[in-house]
Recover the amino acids of this structure.
């Protein structure tokens, strides 16, 4: 290796160390900001949740309008998206565009959540004035409680004074991280307040991996009318005929009332293979109390149950609604739905 290559390698290692050190300094600065924000959360936060929750639960057409300029605007967009995806109707409105016609998007039924680190941006003045003129509740998020935004707001959620991670102390870094985290806190607190269930959450995420993960067993199961059923008085020749016709890998044994007695699987056939198999009663071959899952369970729970059996996996689970047999869910259907 030439001297220049040795020098280049040494310099590269030094630069790498410096980069890693700087990255850790930035993250530590932002962690410190988040810790300070955590300590600063008080009754005003709960009051903000009350404001927004009452707007949503009043039965009207209110929405949460999230607004901000510059980097605070970018954070505002993300906060609005998070709120909307967790059940709180929310929109982002750009204060500059609001001054040129978009103010009409905001109604007297709405609440405005405005983000500004300094709270003194001139672009915010028209929107602040609009909320005051029409009695629209205004919630401020700012690190300057003496700012025009804070003073005119109905409620201020102050950000603690924390140094920006930027070495020049100018680029919004720690402050925007705190804003983003506070928005997440509001969204999750509202989600908890309204008791949003996974099924309701799925309504806002019908597509993609998240939507698939929230599918219920009832959405993937084979219904009762299509199940491979044999009566408990039948012989194995009848069970094998149903097994072949339905091609589901198993046969469910039920009594006259349709109550589940057991299951006959390929494994049961192998264990009881004998010259007289076809003339044996199904109750002598079946496995009683087969593995089952509730009809209201998530399909991913069924996948977990079918793939966590020691040494092997199950091809299917019986689906029950209380004591009633209602269907069967198969691993291959879960695979095709993208759950595995």
């Amino acid at each position: 290796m030439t001297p220049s290559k040795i020098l280049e390698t040494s310099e590269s290692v030094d630069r790498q160390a410096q980069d890693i050190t700087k990255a850790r300094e930035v993250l530590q600065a932002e962690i410190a900001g988040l810790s300070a924000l955590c300590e600063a959360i008080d009754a005003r936060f709960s009051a903000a949740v009350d404001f927004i929750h009452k707007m949503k639960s009043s039965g009207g057409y209110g929405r949460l309008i999230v607004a901000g300029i510059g980097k605070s605007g970018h954070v505002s967009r993300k906060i609005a998206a998070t709120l909307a995806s967790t059940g709180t109707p929310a929109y982002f409105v750009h204060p500059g565009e609001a001054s040129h016609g978009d103010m009409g998007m905001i109604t007297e039924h709405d609440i405005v959540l405005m983000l500004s680190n300094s709270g003194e941006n001139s672009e915010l003045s028209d929107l602040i004035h609009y909320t005051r003129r029409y009695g629209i509740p205004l919630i401020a998020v700012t690190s300057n409680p003496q700012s025009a935004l804070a003073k005119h707001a109905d409620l201020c959620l102050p950000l603690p004074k924390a140094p920006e991670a930027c070495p020049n102390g100018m680029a919004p870094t720690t402050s925007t991280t705190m804003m983003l985290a506070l928005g997440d806190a509001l969204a999750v607190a509202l989600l908890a307040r309204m008791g949003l269930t996974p099924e309701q959450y799925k309504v806002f995420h019908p597509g993609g991996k998240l939507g698939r993960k929230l599918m219920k067993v009832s959405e993937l199961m084979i219904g009762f009318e299509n199940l491979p059923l044999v009566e408990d008085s039948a012989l194995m020749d009848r069970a094998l005929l149903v097994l072949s016709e339905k091609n589901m890998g198993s046969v469910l044994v039920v009594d006259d009332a349709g109550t589940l007695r057991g299951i006959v699987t390929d494994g049961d056939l192998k264990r009881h293979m004998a010259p007289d198999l076809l003339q044996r009663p199904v109750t002598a071959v079946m496995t009683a109390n087969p593995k089952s899952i509730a009809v209201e369970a998530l399909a991913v729970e069924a996948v977990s149950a079918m793939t966590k059996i020691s040494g092997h996996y199950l091809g299917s689970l019986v689906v029950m609604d209380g004591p009633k047999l209602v269907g069967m869910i198969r691993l291959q259907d879960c695979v095709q739905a993208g759950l595995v």
Remarks:
- The mean pLDDT is 87.
